[in-house]
Amino acid sequence: MIRSVVKGIGAVTPERVVKNAELEGVVETTDEWIVQRTGIRQRYIAGEHETTVSLGTKAAQAALENAGLTIDDIDLIILATSTPNHTFPASAVEIQHALGMKHGFAFDMQAVCSGFVYAVTTADMYIKSGMAKRVIVIGAETFSRLLDWKDRTTCVLFGDGAGAIIMEAAEGNGLTSDRGVLTANLRSDGSHQEKLYVDGGPSTTGTVGHLRMEGREVFKHAVGMITDVIEASFATTGLSADDIDWFVPHQANKRIIDASAKKLNIAEHKVVITVDQHGNTSAASVPLALATAVKDGRIKQGDLILLEAMGGGFTWGAVLLRW
Ligand code: ACO
Predict the structure, then answer these.
(1) What average pLDDT does this structure show over 273-301?
(2) Ligand 1 atom nearest to CA at 143
(3) Residue nearest to atom 42 of ligand 1 (CA)
(4) Residue ranges of domains in the chain, CATH in brackets
(5) What's residue 32's pLDDT?
(6) Which of 117, 132, 249, 277 would give a disulfide with 126, using CB separation of 3.0 to 4.6 Å?
(7) Residue 153 Cα: closest atom of ligand 1
(8) CA of 85: how far to CAs of 19, 95, 96, 143, 251, in Å?
């Protein structure tokens, strides 16, 4: 059977680092509150010249280089983002142009913080159907541009960045020892919209709007939703928490990550945490965390990786893949 194997990875953060202490001068908050409630110590904030397209393009270039491939080898680009450069065209198409790709196709995927997990799953479908042989999957965001910098309950939580992987069709034998995506589970439930949304849009206000979140409500649902899709992934494959080499969760809040890992019985030393460095970068958070753990040598070929994310909508999902 066809498997979608990760061939390369790249990530990029904006130049400017903003530590918690700097935010003490923006809203009534403290480094201590932010660290204690979220685990976040700093985030990167895009400068004027940095956009979702420029960050996504750089991450894609780094992933191509890491894979030893060129843009001519790629059939499809999927960009997970909620902060596109323009309402249209899709930022993926702008990235396609920036990469000098004249063939194939590109589109954006909108599932907020779950975007990368949705995009990896979609790329896997295109590869398995034979419609694409190699796909660049990018998560890129400039959430700083959606934030209400007077709202301390949200502005301290988010950051900007981008990560990308190259997925390639490979022959597998249908066993869980195969490299590539082994299973994926996606969910959404629009009845939770008002708990986490942006209060603007082309068809309503005609403005971009600001992010609004009932943090406590999101927190209440997060662990249950995350662990449900992961348990479904274990049930489908016959794998268990003990088989996982690295748990690479969406980086929204360290307390949510810790509680999810605990509920699933995933050992602490197997959990990749980057929320302290990046804050919540929405669709970029999982590929940024993956890239960090690949670069520092933790994730190696053959390792069993569990990805998960949960975000606005609500949307949520999990992917099990062998690196
Ligand atoms: N600094 C200081 N105090 C603050 C701040 C701040 N930045 N923000 C809120 N507070 C205060 C509140 O006003 C409140 O004060 P009060 O008790 O006097 O009313 C107090 O701190 C506690 O607030 P809570 O909201 O109850 O704090 P909580 O422990 O729930 O932490 C947080 C808040 C961090 C937002 C948490 O609820 C959370 O992480 N929620 C989930 C967020 C998330 O995972 N989002 C996921 C996806 S994101 C996406 O899809 C785009």
Answers:
(1) 98
(2) 51
(3) 215
(4) 2-171 (3.40.47.10), 180-322 (3.40.47.10)
(5) 98
(6) 132
(7) 8
(8) 26, 10, 14, 11, 23
Q: What is the pLDDT of residue 74?
A: 98
pLDDT for the residue numbered 43: 98
Tokens of 251: 């980086």
Does residue 153 line the site of ligand 1, with CB under 6 A? yes
Q: Is the dihedral of CA 43, 49, 52, 53 positive or negative?
A: negative
Radius of gyration of the chain (CA): 18
* CA-based nearest residue to 80, from 227, 308, 223, 287: 287
Asked if residue 166 has its Cβ within 6 Å of ligand 1, the reply is no
Ligand 1 pocket test, pick from 20, 36, 37 with the greatest ligand atom count within 8 Å of Cβ, gives: 37
Model confidence at 35, pLDDT cuts 50, 70, 90, reads: very high
245-275 burial code (b ≥16 CB/10 A, e <16): ebbbbbbbbbbbbbbbbeebebeeebbbbbb
What would the pLDDT profile of 1-24 be if each residue is shown by its tens digit?
999 999 999 999 999 999 999 999
**What pLDDT, in 10s, does the model give residues 179-202?**
999 999 999 999 999 999 999 999
Closest CA to 312 of 205, 223, 198: 198
**Residue 215 CA, ligand 1 centroid: distance in Å:** 5
Torsion of CA 69, 72, 75, 78, to 10 degrees: 70
223-269 pLDDT per residue, tens: 999 999 999 999 999 999 999 999 999 999 999 999 999 999 999 99
